[in-house]
Automatic annotation (TrEMBL):
Entries under Gene3D superfamilies matching the protein: Metal-sensitive repressor, helix protomer
Name of the protein in its database record: DNA-binding transcriptional regulator, FrmR family
GO biological process annotation, one example: negative regulation of DNA-templated transcription
Protein's UniProt keywords contain ATP-binding: no
CDD domains: CsoR-like_DUF156
GO molecular function per UniProt: DNA binding; metal ion binding
Provenance organism: Clostridium uliginosum
Top-level taxon in the UniProt lineage: Bacteria
Keywords associated with the record: DNA-binding
Length: 101
């Protein structure tokens, strides 16, 4: 790959990484708002069922954030090479298992 091709690829990857980071930050801010909402519900002694529905929504949202971070880890942090592929896949699986505990 020539120098110009590498620059274009790096610019694309940086742009993609920036979008991913913004998406994760936005999702975390929404989750933060949801948590504050639950705090208000508890203070107001709202129905437990309603509170649990909101807790479930937060769990789902945080799992999505975790999935995006794992996806980023696979694409950015592992730097999978053909020779290292099996070992890197094992690392990814271990990370995913630890995340879901």
């Amino acid at each position: 790959m020539d120098v110009i091709g590498r620059r274009e690829r790096n610019r694309f990857m940086d742009n993609d990484k920036s979008k991913s980071k913004k998406d994760i930050i936005n999702r975390l801010r929404r989750i933060e708002g949801q948590v504050k909402g639950i705090q208000g519900m508890v203070e107001q002694e709202s129905c437990c069922t309603d509170i649990l529905v909101q807790v479930s929504a937060i769990r789902s949202a945080i799992n999505k954030v975790g999935g995006l971070i794992i996806e980023n880890y696979a694409g950015e942090c592992l730097n999978i090479d053909k020779d290292e592929k099996q070992e890197e896949i094992k690392k990814l699986i271990k990370t995913m298992v630890n995340f879901t505990k």
